[in-house]
Amino acid sequence: MKVIVTGASGMVGKGVLLECLDHPKVVEVLSIGRRTLDLTHPKLKQIEHKDFSEFESIADQLTGYDACYACMGVSSAGMKEEQYRTMTYDYTMALANVLYGLNAKMTFIYVSGQGTDSSEKGRIMWARIKGKTENDIFKLGFKQAYAFRPGAIIPMRGVESSSKLYNFLIKSLGWLIKLMKKISPNSIVNTQQIGVAMINASIAGFDKEIIGPKEILMLAE
């Protein structure tokens, strides 16, 4: 299987990328990012692409792939709705539309979030925009399309969040995470489990389009 990963400079994307590189059924991984990663691996190819509003200019390098794991994303904190929509909806759909035209039989997995609003009508800005992104990806017609909605995420294998606050909380509140897992074992996932779950969903399929923490844990087994 040949896969594309976006957002590999972030916590989720980096975790997914590492699992893809290690998986025996993944023979090639293409990372698309605004800057190249400080990482080399026999399976890894990289494209430095500055403008995520369009992917037509690199379309000739995106053919022949079996799956895309769209992990790019930003926090909505301090953002106006128009800016957040551009970076969340417009960028994701620009990629999805080009890939559908090239590889309609591929699996497209979008990293969304718990609390996403599938009705697109709620009061929470980020949830509406992610909901529209999910819905429009599903409408394209990929052979398989999924929205992953992880809740709390534990970074593994040396992966860190771009948020200093998140890193601090993870390192300082390990006891709380252990307590949460004990109270609600299906509420927390780690970056390794997300990556393995994506690969397994691509290979074997899954009976739900929207995949929450419980389903991620099932797929990662």
Q: What this model shows, in words?
A:
41% of the residues lie in helices and 17% in strands. The chain is built from seven helices and nine strands. It has helices spanning 11-22, 81-102, 125-140, 164-172, 174-183, 191-204, 213-220, and strands at residues 2-6, 28-33, 44-48, 67-70, 107-111, 144-148, 152-154, 188-190, 210-211. The protein has a seven-stranded parallel sheet with strand order 3-2-1-4-5-6-9, sandwiched between helices. It has a two-stranded parallel ribbon with strand order 7-8. α3 links the parallel β5 and β6. α2 (81-102) runs parallel beside α3 (125-140) and α6 packs across α7 (213-220). The chain is globular, with a radius of gyration of 16 Å.
Summarize it.
This protein is of the alpha/beta class and 221 residues long.
Could you outline the blueprint of secondary structure elements for this entry?
Layout: E1 2-6, H1 11-22, E2 28-33, E3 44-48, E4 67-70, H2 81-102, E5 107-111, H3 125-140, E6 144-148, E7 152-154, H4 164-172, H5 174-183, E8 188-190, H6 191-204, E9 210-211, H7 213-220
Parallel strand pairs: 1-2, 1-4, 2-3, 4-5, 5-6, 6-9, 7-8
Pfam families: Epimerase (PF01370)
InterPro entries: Epimerase_deHydtase (IPR001509), NAD(P)-bd_dom_sf (IPR036291)
Organism: Owenweeksia hongkongensis (strain DSM 17368 / CIP 108786 / JCM 12287 / NRRL B-23963 / UST20020801)
